[in-house]
Every structure is written in C-alpha cells, then in structure tokens.
Amino acid sequence: MAKLSNRMFATVIIGLSVAGCTGPVVVREQEPPISSASPELVAEATEFGDWSLPPEGEVLLVRKQALDDPTYNLVVETSPTGLAWMLEQSKYSAPFEKRYSIDPDLDAVIAGPSLETSPNVVKAQDLFVSKEGDSMIRDVIVDERTAELRIVHLEFRGQ
Question: For residues 132 and 108, what is the distance between their CA atoms, to the nearest angstrom?
C-alpha cells in the first residue's frame, strides 16, 4: 500500500509540473562555428578579448562559436619579442606552466602544427573583465616551436 501511495504522489507531482508549462518548449540549435582569418573576424575577436596583436604577428586562423556566451579562438605566429609585447599590451600577467603532456580536450588547437610535436609548450589562464564590463576567461597556450618562433593559441570565453 505504501508503494502504491508513493507512486500516486509522484504521478500527481509530475502531472502538476507538466501542467505548469504555459507554452511550447523552444530548443535553440547551436550555430556552426565561423572560422576565418578575415580582418573583420580578427578585430571582433581581439576587441572581445581586449587583446592586442603584435605588429609583426601573423594571424593563422580565428574561430567564433556563438553560444549563450561567445567563445573566440585565435592562432598567432610571432617572435618571443612579439609575444612579450602582446602579453604586456593585453594586460595579461597570469603565470605560465610547462605542459609535460598534451590533452587534446584541454589543449585543443585550431591551426598550426600539433602541440605534441613541439619541443616546449606552456599554458596560462586568467579571469578578465573587459572595458565593457564583460567577465571572461582568457587561455593562452604558447608553442615555443623554435628559438625565434612562437605559435600562440588564444581562447576567450565569456561567462
């Protein structure tokens, strides 16, 4: 009798919950990511992340994912001097840590050579509030490919 009573109670609660819905349930489809190296998308991404690119740097690719909070990924080739300038101008001071192993989920790249083939990879993350008051996470992975080449993987995620 107690089991029957519990089932009836659960059925009534579920029925009341469903009856409380007043409109159709709308499921939004996720837009496919946009990938390009166009100046417009580069400008949009760097503006969102409050990020400065070094004058001699080359943007390999930008990807934008438009979820509830946008995510931008950028890949920039630069020199060690360009990297230092970029971090300073972007007010990025999080400490970098050496990556001894590469996790494809945590260390995903959208352009450039695989991080697994790099002689040295470092990564840092900061919590940043933009000029517009947007709170975001900024991840920076630096592939120290050669003595004069840095491939910088950036990700800006809104919160």
Answer: 28
- What is the distance between the alpha carbons of residues 8 and 31, in angstroms, rounded to a whole number? 42
Task: Give per-residue pLDDT as tens, 101-111.
Answer: 999 888 889 99
Q: Give me the long-range contacts of 79-84 (CB less than 8 A, separation at least 24).
A: 79/54, 79/148, 79/149, 79/150, 80/147, 80/148, 80/150, 81/54, 82/54, 82/55, 82/56, 82/57, 82/150, 83/54, 83/142, 83/150, 83/152
List of residues 6+ apart from 118 with CB closer than 8 A: 143, 144, 145
What's the CA gap between 96 and 50, in Å, rounded? 19
Q: Which residue in this structure is represented by tokens 């695989």?
A: 114
Q: Please state the length of the chain.
A: 159
* pLDDT for residue 10: 45
In whole angstroms, what is the distance from residue 86 CA to residue 46 CA?
A: 11
